[in-house]
Design goal:
Blueprint (H helix, E strand, L loop, with lengths): L2 H11 L54 E6 L5 E7 L26 H4 L56 H5 L6 E3 L5 E3 L5 H7 L15 H4 L5 H12 L21 H4 L10 H12 L5 H4 L3 H20 L4 E4 L2 E4 L28 H15 L8 H13 L23 H4 L5 H28 L18 H5 L25 H22 L10 H22 L6 H10 L27 H26 L4 H6 L8 H23 L7 H25 L3 H20 L3 H18 L5 H12 L14
Antiparallel strand pairs: 1-2, 3-4, 5-6
Length: about 775
């Protein structure tokens, strides 16, 4: 008998009413995470059962009459009792949580029981009569085809109280107030509800899952039956797969920066990519934030559904979180912050282990933490993303994603080290293994890009030094999507480590080089603020980074020659803003690149993406120049305590800030809704605007300047559009600051001093001084 089972017996024997133990199943001695309940006659009469991370399961009305005592074993091996729960059938864990699914490092997930139509019915949601496994049976007359208002409704998946180590539902306290659950699901799927006012609402969220058109979602459908219908889940997956800027009515999710997995693999009709339910739920949650779907436009529905999907995603990933485990002699032990009556025992839901026996996982888990970090950092509570980000970094390191292509220095292969990567290279590589390794590379480079982006946003140093990056650059998007048709000899040569030149229109082809250079700038910036090393001369480092920026600009110019950009529009804005440099001395504007029309053989869709990539990359390059030569903190820039305005660095910084405003004007012509990269765009627009705020603030002393006002109006418009596309508080506040500054230029008012203090208060929320956290409020 396992330690878990023996611990249960000892605790049960100490009680007057002992609980019978479940016998081992399938020859394993480990107990199930949730065991069968044991009937008690003295328990109160309720009809509410909650299972953390799973959809709530209703029993027939006959079972509502008998109160029971529900006893289940959590992953820490202890019995928890809910004295207000109905007698429910046992719930078996998904194969993702079974130790047999993690036989070796990087083992593939076992999803045959979910993806094989001939497999035995799932025990996740047992039914008393035949129906598709894990999917409720719904009659054809049910009202789930409509979209009734969710007012006064209650989601059936919400939990009355969270169990230890789990995150409860956001509205659990609201649900508890109802006391009884007076509806039960019959075999034909209809609601026999004592509360008829909830009939239409509940039928919406009990819509059948059998109409989901993507088998990729099969693992997560049993969890979704009380949240969204299967057809809506498929629509959300469509949003996840949508390319940015393709349609105003089918906009891509701002939090999906790029597809890590091949679209062909995800949408395969018979053998889709095996994906964890936690990742699938997180993908749907990200897409539901902004998806233009009818159900989400019903008042209150979007908030309910997104919160329910977040609860589901975090509950599922918490079961797979390596931080819940620690290494001990003899195996992994469960980490718990709850008081335990007996010493910790072993659990049956053991995670995968790495080659060094660290608790690990799979690449899906890293991507789940990344998506949670992105979406949370894009919301109002940005600093809450740190807990997910730190998990992503640690799990990435444990899985050695940063050493995917590490080369063994030994002269003999294989070397004596049993953990060396040279032993893996001896294995024959198939298409599946090649695809899996490329997925790992893409996940690593995505977290690398975000590391630099969040470093600028939150004023932190990079968590992934460039010296750690022993990984080949990702394949171009066109080759990656058609990997199954490519022979190894047709694959292009790749370099090790982060690139610094733009090579195409794919996310990793244009954004990764920019982030590599940004990482160098962040390192230099924080070195300047070091209390001991800050006095060292950094001119050599600045010169090297400037050269990298010039080389990147040349590679972008090569790409821009293929873009369908209007040089006439760009030149017109250049002449309009020419008088801005009259405010300064010895400032010359960078010469605009001469764009030519693309060849007529390029499809319109590709020409549009070329144009967008060229415009956005041009803006980011100018902002990188500003960050390299200028100050990052707006208030320090306005105070000018060190007379920085008279320095050469200011002239260099100001010329690129002016060019950045011109690039914003070009972007607004190409992408009026700013839907191409809304999550990433805001911070670069903000830092590129600080110099213009300085110009506007000095205008009362230097006199009005129409070109400055026009440039500020362009920046204000861009911030307003950004707020519509992806509402962020810092852009709302900065728009007010810049608008108020322009108002002060046009005439004095009795409240001018109060307006000035209000502007300072707004800017003081976001500081980039030493120790400040930027946007992380």
């Amino acid at each position: 008998m396992s330690l878990t089972a023996s611990g249960q017996s000892e605790r049960s024997a100490s009680r007057s009413n002992s609980l019978p133990q479940n016998p081992p199943q399938n020859g394993h001695s480990h107990s199930s995470p949730i065991n069968s309940p044991v009937t008690r006659s003295d328990a109160p009469e309720y009809a509410r059962q909650s299972v953390i991370g799973l959809a709530t399961i209703d029993r027939a009305a006959a079972h509502h009459e008998n109160g029971v005592l529900d006893s289940h074993t959590t992953t820490d091996g202890h019995v928890h009792q809910n004295h207000a729960t109905p007698n429910l059938p046992p719930i078996a864990p998904y194969p993702y949580l079974s130790p047999s699914s993690y036989g070796a490092p990087h083992a593939h997930l076992q999803l045959s029981s979910l993806l094989d139509p001939s497999a035995e019915p799932s025990h996740i949601l047992p039914r008393t009569h035949d129906s598709p496994h894990g999917i409720p049976t719904v009659s054809g007359s049910e009202s789930s085809a409509g979209y009734p208002s969710p007012a006064n409704g209650i989601l059936r998946h919400q939990h009355p109280a969270p169990l230890p180590h789990h995150r409860g539902s956001f509205s659990a306290s609201m649900v508890q107030g109802h006391g009884h659950r007076d509806s039960s699901s019959t075999t034909n799927g209809r609601e026999e509800a004592i509360h008829p006012e909830l009939q239409g609402f509940n039928s919406l969220y009990k819509a059948p899952s059998s109409n989901c058109r993507y088998r990729l979602l099969d693992p997560v459908l049993p969890y979704l039956q009380d949240i969204i219908p299967g057809s809506v889940a498929a629509d959300l997956l469509d949003v996840y797969l949508t390319e940015p800027g393709s349609s105003l009515f089918r906009c891509a999710s701002p939090y999906i920066l790029t597809r890590i997995f091949r679209k062909k693999s995800m949408l395969h009709e018979t053998n889709p990519r095996q994906t964890t339910p936690a990742l699938l739920a997180t993908m749907l949650w990200c897409a539901a934030q902004t998806a233009d779907i009818v159900l989400l436009h019903v008042p209150g529905s979007r908030a309910k559904i997104t919160n329910a999907l977040y609860d589901l995603a975090t509950s599922l990933i918490s079961e797979r979180d390596p931080d819940r485990w620690r290494r001990a002699h003899g195996g992994l032990r469960y980490e718990s912050d709850q008081p335990q009556p007996l010493p910790y025992g072993y659990s049956s839901a053991l995670p995968a282990t790495t080659e060094t026996n660290e608790p690990g996982g799979v690449v899906d888990d890293v991507l789940t933490f990344i998506l949670l970090s992105i979406a949370v950092s894009g919301g109002d509570f940005k600093s809450d993303c740190f807990k997910w980000w730190s998990k992503a970094i640690r799990l990435m390191t444990a899985l050695k994603l940063n050493r995917e292509d590490e080369r063994c220095p030994a002269t003999v292969s294989p070397c004596a080290n049993p953990l060396c990567s040279c032993r893996r290279d001896l294995e024959a590589e198939s298409l599946a293994s090649a695809e899996a390794r490329e997925e790992r590379r893409r996940v690593f480079w995505l977290i690398y890009c975000l590391d630099r982006h969040l470093g600028l946003s939150f004023n932190t140093v990079p968590d992934i030094p460039d010296s750690y990056c022993q990984v080949y650059t990702p394949l171009p998007e066109t080759i990656w999507e058609n990997l199954d048709t490519m022979s190894p000899s047709d694959l292009p040569g790749r370099v090790m480590g982060p690139p610094t030149k733009v090579t195409g229109t794919g996310f990793f082809e244009y954004f990764l080089p920019l982030m590599a250079i940004l990482g160098d700038i962040i390192e230099v910036h924080h070195c300047r603020q070091h209390p001991r090393l800050g006095s060292l001369d950094d001119s050599a480092a600045v010169s090297l980074i400037s050269q990298q920026l010039q080389n990147c600009e040349l590679s972008l110019d090569t790409l821009a020659r293929e873009a369908d950009a209007s040089s006439a529009d760009y030149n017109s804005t250049s002449t309009t803003n020419q008088s801005i440099k009259n405010l300064l001395t010895n400032i010359s504007l960078p010469a605009p690149s001469n764009n030519i029309l693309p060849p007529p053989s390029i499809p319109a869709k590709d020409r549009s993406r070329l144009q967008l990539v060229s415009a956005y990359s041009t803006l980011i390059l100018h902002v990188l120049h500003v960050l390299l030569h200028g100050k990052w903190d707006a208030i320090s820039m306005l105070d000018n305590s060190d007379d920085w305005i008279t320095s050469r660095d200011f002239n260099e910084c100001a010329s690129h800030a002016i060019a950045a405003s011109q690039a914003v004007s070009s972007i607004l012509k190409s992408d009026p809704e700013l839907t191409f990269m809304p999550y990433l765009f805001g911070i670069y627009l903000l830092h590129g605007s600080f110099i213009l705020l300085l110009f506007a603030d000095r205008m009362p002393q230097l006199g009005p300047n129409q070109s400055v006002e026009q440039a500020c109006e362009t920046i204000i418009r861009a911030h307003e559009v950004c707020v519509v596309t992806l509402s962020t508080e810092f852009q709302k506040n900065f728009r007010k600051v810049l608008r108020s500054t322009l108002y002060s230029v046009r005439g004095s008012s009795p409240t001018e001093w109060e307006e000035h203090k209000a502007r300072r208060r707004a800017l003081s929320l976001y500081r980039w001084t030493p120790g400040a956290r930027g946007l992380a409020l």
